[in-house]
Design a protein that fits this description.
The protein is α/β, with parallel strands linked by helices. It contains nine helices and 15 strands.
């Protein structure tokens, strides 16, 4: 593995190439909206996106901007603000290939890659409508059972890129994720991780025994870009809350293509949030 690099935001976004399988976290878990803005500005097309395990405004923007060809997610929603409008429009238009999944299935498939095995078994899917729609999930007998014991085998998912935002990183690529362990699973499973951070510090985040357990080591990080308030309009841990007013403006504007484009123009023109 090559040494971790500290890059500009645009250079980091250039590491996401057309057709990549891109893993992104849920709205509450360190979403890199700064990198999302850079990806839209670059017009990176034909992305295959894995939501780990759900997404909201981030994936809605990527879909509305025409960057997503395929999507695998347990849910896409703006929560209390209702349906994700550009996602909904794309599904209705048939312009997006959708792979329905569940939260446990996403985590199990990533954990298989994390462990270096081709699949993991998972219970709870048998008899569900979703299992009938997923030809890549295999229902088979438990090879260790002495009686009938069907179980579902899920193929490993290895994203090309895991993309997320953190409060801080150091110059060795160690990044603070705190209790957001899904970010660690994403980084362990992916071929490479690209991270934006509120700040890059000059001391090692692993030096303090009391906080080191909340650090993802730089071994799993290819590159970091500094991006103050890089999760806006979403919130980030205890550092700043979501901008509910801006999210509401997005939900209203994105109901129409014209409204979405107008909101997106403003978003692209904003390099950082006040």
């Amino acid at each position: 593995m090559s040494a971790m690099e500290i890059l500009s935001l645009d250079t980091l976004a250039a590491r996401v190439t057309p057709g990549s399988l891109l893993a992104i976290p849920p709205d509450y878990s360190g979403v890199s909206m700064a990198a999302t803005r850079a990806l839209v500005a670059r017009g990176v097309k034909d992305l295959r996106v894995l939501c780990v395990p759900t997404s909201g405004v981030q994936i809605d923007i990527l879909i509305g901007a025409g960057l997503v060809a395929e999507l695998e997610a347990a849910a896409v929603t703006l929560g209390e603000l209702g349906l994700a409008p550009r996602f909904t429009a794309a599904i209705k238009a048939g312009s997006l290939a959708m792979r329905d999944t569940t939260c446990p299935a996403v985590h199990a498939a990533l954990q298989a890659s994390e462990k270096g095995v081709p699949f993991l078994p998972l219970r709870g899917l048998i008899g569900s409508d979703i299992l009938a729609q997923r030809g890549d999930w295999k229902l088979a007998d438990n090879p260790f059972a002495t009686a009938d014991d069907p179980i579902v085998f899920l193929p490993a998912i290895q994203p090309d890129v895991a993309l997320f935002h953190v409060t801080r990183a150091d110059r060795d690529g160690n990044v603070w994720i705190g209790r957001r362990r899904e970010l660690a699973t994403m980084a362990h499973a992916a071929k490479r991780s690209l991270v934006t951070a509120e700040e890059i510090v000059d001391f090692s985040l692993l030096d303090d025994e009391t906080t080191a357990a909340g650090v993802l080591p730089g071994l799993y990080v290819e590159a970091v870009a500094e991006a103050p308030r890089g999760a806006w309009p979403l919130g980030l841990q205890d550092l700043y809350p979501a901008d509910d007013a801006e999210l509401a403006r997005y939900a209203e504007a994105a109901r129409t293509e014209a409204g979405f484009r107008a909101w997106l123009d403003g978003f692209l023109g904003r390099r950082s949030a006040a």
